[in-house]
Amino acid sequence: xxxxxxxxxxxxxxxxxxxxxxxxxxxxxxxxxxxxxxxxxxxxxxxxxxxxxxxxxxxxxxxxxxxxxxxxxxxxxxxxxxxxxxxxxxxxxxxxxxxxxxxxxxxxxxxxxxxxxxxxxxxxxxxxxxxxxxxxxxxxxxxxxxxxxxxxxxxxxxxxxxxxxxxxxxxxxxxxxxxxxxxxxxxxxxxxxxxxxxxxxxxxxxxxxxxxxxxxxxxxxxxxxxxxxxxxxxxxxxxxxxxxxxxxxxxxxxxxxxxxxxxxxxxxxxxxxxxxxxxxxxxxxxxxxxxxxxxxxxxxxxxxxxxxxxxxxxxxxxxxxxxxxxxxxxxxxxxxxxxxxxxxxxxxxxxxxxxxxxxxxxxxxxxxxxxxxxxxxxxxxxxxxxxxxxxxxxxxxxxxxxxxxxxxxxxxxxxxxxxxxxxxxxxxxxxxxxxxxxxxxxxxxxxxxxxxxxxxxxxxxxxxxxxxxxxxxxxxxxxxxxxxx
Length: 485
Prior knowledge:
Strand content: 25-35%
Distance between the termini: 67 Å
Number of domains: 4
CATH class of the largest domain: Alpha Beta
Radius of gyration: 24 Å
């Protein structure tokens, strides 16, 4: 609740004074990882400041609940496309109950216990910078914590809501993953990962879903084939998709306070422009138009900084950013990786050691858990060419290997490998098909290890496993690339 007058500053005698080596603002997986890696095996100490749930967005509102909802759908989908197996049926109440179990009923005590067990102090409350190497925590009792070595901003990100959609009490990703009552008609604005995944599970739960996409394709940034295949799959599942469509106006009547921390209203009337209809009425609206680093309300000005300077890397040596707050790829696994690297660096510097060198190339993998799944790592062919590489590509049907064809009777999709035509080293890969998520890591290893395809062809996949798909891709490349030993 906001007030016009600022709350009086606590008397110094009422503020607990704490000193540790590393202070992390943000108790998500990224914050937990950097605190652990910065101190483990040493006598260094760390504190995590968290004003919400320890475990962060991923554990309660994003990765974990969305996959808890999507995995049963994938199993039901597979059972419906395999002879000799009775198609599985979805039971919405049990599905949501499973989701609640995976998010521990939104109870973070186990996460807090882990941190304390690892020697990391958990400070509950909102943390703000209050000076060099100093953070003040507004909790039940104010705490001023001083870092001997580093303060880390691991504050995550927050949804971006376009001006035309503000003030409507529209859903964000938290509402979609935490759904209790399935709306009869749901509109989703966006064409990225959150939008396509949410469309998948909400349609399966019985909602009539309309996807409103401003661009001309889904999943921009991936290979074009991935967006086309997911578009066809969503439409086959009853999702209406309007490309080239933008919401220009929106109204909602009868907005009432539910007493549950959010308001609820009647149907929404959306005015649209572009290739879609001129008007659409729905019961709920999910806005999935991206996220921005959560750098507001950290009192950056106290140390002479702005959010733009933080994102630009213009930081004093004692202040670090990691995860979504850094402006890098907003993916939990990437944030955790960067937290491990930075944590090692902080530990080395604090103990007078030399940090381990990083590999020259570390690509960012990503999986979209739609049906079919999209798994990608590194550069697309277009991105590689733009970066100045002479490119060779291979593309085969996802079911072209016996192992992938055996996953289900309609293992449709595609597999694409992008290779530097001069060195033979893989630059990127995209897999679209059932269980594609479990197949992308070999490409990640090859790119990090800078392993040329002339060597990779000697990595023998077992038969009949899905890994044989990589052999099919390598066989599609020019012979001169495959035989350069």
